[in-house]
Specification:
It contains 13 helices and 12 strands. It is of the alpha+beta class. The protein has 2 domains: 37 residues, no CATH class; 328 residues, DD-peptidase/beta-lactamase superfamily (Beta-lactamase, 3-Layer(aba) Sandwich). The strands form 3 sheets. A 6-stranded antiparallel sheet has the order 3-2-12-11-10-9, sandwiched between helices. The chain has a 4-stranded antiparallel sheet with strand order 1-5-6-4. Strands 7-8 form a two-stranded antiparallel ribbon. A hairpin with a 2-residue loop joins strand 2 and strand 3. The protein is globular and about 60 Å long. It comes from Epilithonimonas hungarica. This is CubicO group peptidase, beta-lactamase class C family. Keywords: Membrane, Transmembrane, Transmembrane helix.
Length: 381
């Protein structure tokens, strides 16, 4: 009797496995192994080592100089309490090109890499700007179907532009959901092929009309840049960003099993080097006063689109409603690179948790808290 019960149980397990593969949910096995079996509910900032990746190689390093007042002032009790409660691993404040504050926790240091999550969107968008500079892409208005003609057969396929993708106004049939294991986000994160997911997605509404944050949009943009340049995104990022910016460490860009970078996500780098991306944007495409990306393109990135109700430009979140205008890169679990032009300031926060409180436009309120705290250390002149 016991043997019969065991055979039935094994048959059920085998049937579930077969059904999972038939229905395309086989990525769940990796997802469960990397999350639930480790006591996690989703992706973590340390899971880059569990995926294949391509190296974004640095060149000659140009480390950030330290300000004369480096770490001389203590973090406020409110800030320190928040950072520790939300399992922060890095916090940096940089003003006028020098580090004012630099703190690490939980075994992290200035060279420790962690997951950018959606902050990678800004890097992908910068590569779009560089591809336009290099005359491999005509403009942001170029149709995606120029580069991928097979997309023209979809509803609205011929109307979808690269700007629609970068501004999150693509109109894809894609619900951005980081909690459901059955979402497209989960499949692109844990699955075998990102192309299978994004190219099978349909366009549900006319592009360019409505803002809706969708990871699939940035992945399509990454495909367009890669094909236009004829090289992997990681190689292009190395040549046009990591080397000229003097990054201190190589980075790793997570790929699917076919070696395609997840352009919506997952650059494994450190707080200091993420800050260099912020510096490039803050200085309108220049680094050490050398132009790297067209200033007009950076202005497009930092200017909110009308359709986003003032919260998103191209690959970058914006807040012009605040008394202190700012823009920022934002990734899952509260990865932030915040740029404050008025004070020539960059703030980086990396960590394992984020607060859920949002403003009336659904932006994270914690960004303004970080700015107000950073100003306590800053030169206000």
């Amino acid at each position: 009797m016991l043997k019969k019960i065991l055979n039935i149980f094994l048959l059920i397990i085998a049937s579930v496995i077969v059904l999972t593969y038939i229905t395309g949910y086989n990525y769940l096995f990796r997802g469960i192994r990397l999350t639930y079996l480790r006591g996690e509910s989703g992706p973590t900032i340390d899971d880059g080592k569990d995926f294949p990746s391509k190296t974004i190689s640095k060149g000659d390093s140009k480390p950030w100089p330290k300000d004369i007042n480096y770490n001389k002032q203590k973090l406020s009790p409110e800030l320190e309490k928040h950072l520790k409660e939300n399992e922060s691993v890095s916090f940096l404040v940089i003003q006028h090109g020098k580090i004012l504050q630099e703190h690490y926790w939980d075994g992290y240091n200035k060279t420790t890499a962690s997951n950018s999550f959606s902050m990678a969107n800004t890097v992908t968008t910068l590569l779009l700007g560089k591809a336009i500079d290099d005359e491999r892409i005509k403009s942001t208005e170029q149709p995606f179907s120029d580069i991928y003609p097979e997309f023209s057969g979809k509803q609205y396929g011929k109307e979808l532009t690269l700007e629609d993708l970068a501004s999150m106004q693509a109109g894809l049939d894609w619900k951005d959901d980081h909690k459901s294991p059955f979402s497209k986000n989960a499949e692109t994160y844990y699955g075998f092929s990102v192309a299978n997911v994004v190219f099978e997605s349909q366009i549900k509404t006319k592009p360019g009309k409505k803002f809706e944050y969708q990871s699939g949009s940035m992945q399509l943009l990454g495909f367009a840049i890669g094909r236009a340049m004829g090289m992997p995104l990681s190689f292009y990022a190395s040549a046009k960003l990591w080397k000229p910016l003097g990054m201190e460490q190589n980075a790793e860009w997570t790929t699917d099993e076919l070696g395609i970078e997840k352009s919506f996500c997952c650059i494994q780098s450190n707080a200091r080097d993420f800050a260099k991306i912020g510096s490039l944007i803050l200085n309108r495409g220049k680094f050490d006063n050398i132009p790297l990306i067209n200033e007009d393109f950076i202005a497009r990135m930092t200017t909110p689109t009308e359709g986003s109700n003032g919260i998103y430009g191209l690959g970058l979140w914006t807040n012009c409603d605040s008394k202190i205008h700012h823009y920022y890169m934002w990734g899952l679990h509260g990865q932030f690179v915040i740029m404050v032009p008025e004070y020539d300031m960059i703030i980086v926060r990396l960590g394992k948790k984020e607060t859920e409180e949002k403003d009336r436009k659904n932006r994270p309120k914690i960004v303004e808290f970080y700015i107000n705290e950073a100003l306590k250390f800053a030169n206000k002149n």
